[in-house]
Amino acid sequence: MSNIKSFFSVIGEFLKALIKSYTYSIWENGYVIFGILWGMPVPIVTIGISLYCNQIALSLSAIVGEILAHPFQIIFLLHPIIFGIVFGAMGTVREEKEKQKLEFEESLIIKNKELADVNKKLQELDQLKDNFLSMVSHELKTPLTTVQGYITFVKDGLSGALSERQREVLWIAEEQIDHLDNLIGELVDLSKIKAGRFEVNPEPVDLTQIAVKTINSLKYLFDGKGISLENKLPEKLSLVLADRKRMSQVFINLLGNALKFTQSGGKVTVSAHEKDTKIQFCVSDTGIGIPEDEIDGIFNKFYQVDSTAKRKYGGCGLGLAITKHIIELHKGGDIWVESEVGKGSKFFFELKKYEKLEKVES
Ligand code: ADP
């Protein structure tokens, strides 16, 4: 079907070319001359054969006589003209195509330039946004630290005795400040990642100790929400080369999410085991779970399964992106999740075991 279509379109283009004067111009269109030269041998051969067969010597009057005696020779005489027209039309079609191609190439060059300009502007805006992010997060951090200091000062009774109500209010204020502190911390980390200044300082550590410390410090939040937090970590594990502060941040992020996305009455478990040259940790919960088609996205920055304005859970979608970055900055670091909606999620991460002869790099 498409063959028939393209055949008719070629015929159409050819017929259109016949309307153009350029098609017949011997001076402008080289194809016409080429056609005439191709058509020349036809009358020469036919008249020549006829004269030879009739044993007539070649002369102008003999040729004229031959044409008058056999008028069909006129058809052969017209061949150089017919060939000139046909080749001329082909030349015109080709010329048009070349013109279209040139116009298309020119428009491509213009569009490419426009794209490059837009790209450059986007990069400048991105840089501006990164600078702004870094500046704002640092500017917010300083007054927040001061407010935190004052709250602790008042809470510790250093500015006088407190009533029960005042303690309650301060407790709520502290909780909100901690929440804000977390968000700002994540923004600072993000700006460091973007600027390539996010680093880890690895040293040989027993990750179970860091995990247990985090579990103990967050236990009261789980108790408060009525979620059981189970420690199924082995007594001792091989050492890994890791950054203590950053690994504690990993546990806080994973346990914080498990707490946030698990309903009251649910269970969160932290476990670990050694696997060949690696140590694998798992934070599992019996919470809301993650739909299968969202799993790939949750480690991207600012990604949330529910990002609508009416969403139930707080956060800004940076925790897992930063967690993944931290894990991947460590030797053999990998992180992934298995989850089922309504049943819960299991976040796994693994790091390579530390071998005594290994060099500690920072
Ligand atoms: P945040 O928690 O601040 O929204 P994260 O990067 O920590 O950002 O997590 C991204 C998204 O992944 C969350 O918004 C949530 O939709 C999903 N998620 C993370 N952890 C869990 C979990 N344990 N259970 C269910 N969903 C989760």
Please tell me about this protein's structure:
Helix content is 58%, strand content 12%. It is built from 10 helices and 7 strands. The longest helix is centred in the N-terminal third of the chain and has 77 residues, at 79-155. It has 362 residues and is an alpha+beta fold. It has helices spanning 2-17, 30-39, 41-53, 60-69, 73-77, 79-155, 164-194, 207-225, 244-260, 319-329; strands at 203-205, 228-232, 240-242, 267-275, 278-285, 334-340, 344-352. A hairpin with a 2-residue loop joins β4 (267-275) and β5 (278-285). α2 runs antiparallel to α6, α6 (79-155) runs antiparallel to α7 (164-194) and α9 (244-260) runs antiparallel to α10 (319-329).
Name some characteristics of this structure.
10 helices, binds adenosine-5'-diphosphate, alpha+beta, 58% helix, 362 residues, 12% strand
